Amino acid sequence: MVSSYGEGGKILAGGQSLIPLLKSRLFAVPHLIDIGRIEGMRGVTEDKKEIHIGPLTTISEIESDKVVREHLPALGDASSVIADPLIRNAGTVGGNVCHGDPSNDIPAVMHVLGANFVLEKTGDRRISDVENFFVDTLQTDVRSGEILTGIVIPNPPERSGSAYLKAEKRAGDFSLAGVAVYLELGKGETVSKLKIALTSSGPKVMAVDGLYAIIHGNTLSPDVMGRICKRASSVSRPVDDVHGTAEYKRNVVSMLTGDAIKIALDRAKGGRR
């Protein structure tokens, strides 16, 4: 059906992003293709190397999943702060990432966790890595005739940790700013790897670059933490609006970055992934 309708068809999963667009007349399409009852695209499984997430897995199922909570705590963090239980019960992880909204919480987490997205169409299958998947506002790497059939995340090693924090515009709303963090510890207290991505800070997920030069051979001392937070703030590209000035939002990014790093570090030290 996706292949036959082409641009005239739109996939409907949980509908929590698509239906509001249709109701507000911001988007229109002749055909909706409901894939919500395809059981083979639901659930979370793991092996030693990878964690596989079915795109029709609901946000509530992600939030409570044991594998996610143990190995991908940042994904559990993000799922628990999306909207309200009614939306989390219907919305899907695949719909969340395919919508491509820079204010959605899960894309930033997918970025720091190094997710790969399995895209299929009639007679073809390809993998899109997270670096290329989020193209622009409401634009992803899903091409005409394709459907997201799987999300694959490397199983994090021991002494790693992740976290996601956001400041909401109001309770249950999109974020004023959000920060996803993933880190791995090296020898002693040094950090061998650090990835940070930002929500609501630009036209798409904003990855914070230049971190290796800051953390290389260092522990997360107050000075290093300050430099990391300053770097994250400088990468963010917020705009002035009724919720606050761009300068205020950059300060929020800096604060959230420091707090998220501390949580991720605590999880890494405790052996919880």
Explain what the structure shows:
With 273 residues, this protein is α+β, with helices and mostly antiparallel strands. It has two domains: 2-26 and 43-154, Uridine Diphospho-n-acetylenolpyruvylglucosamine Reductase, domain 3; 160-269, Enolase-like, domain 1 (2-Layer Sandwich), CATH 3.30.390. 36% of the residues lie in helices and 26% in strands. The protein has twelve helices and 13 strands. It has helices at residues 2-5, 18-23, 59-64, 66-71, 73-80, 85-90, 93-99, 106-113, 130-133, 212-215, 222-235, 246-269; strands spanning 9-12, 31-34, 44-46, 50-53, 116-121, 124-129, 134-136, 139-140, 147-154, 160-168, 175-185, 191-199, 206-207. The chain has a five-stranded antiparallel beta sheet. Strand 12 (191-199) and strand 13 (206-207) form a beta hairpin. Helix 11 packs across helix 12 (246-269). The longest helix has 24 residues, at 246-269. The radius of gyration is 18 Å and the shape is globular. The model has no long low-confidence stretch (mean pLDDT 94).
User: Per the principal axes of the C-alpha atoms, what is the gross shape?
Assistant: globular
| Count of extended strands | 13
CATH class of the largest domain: Alpha Beta
What's the CATH topology name of the largest domain? Uridine Diphospho-n-acetylenolpyruvylglucosamine Reductase, domain 3
Largest sheet: 5 strands, antiparallel
- What value does the Rg take, in angstroms? 18 Å
Level-2 CATH architecture of the largest domain: 2-Layer Sandwich
Mean pLDDT: 94
N- and C-termini, Cα separation: 40 Å
Side by side, the strands of the main sheet go 3-4-9-5-6
Spans where pLDDT lies below 50 across 5 or more residues: none
Helix content: 25-40%
Total tally of structural domains: 2
The amount of beta strand, in percent, is 25-35%
| Number of helices, counting only DSSP H or I runs of 4 residues or more | 12
Find the structural class using helix and strand composition: alpha+beta
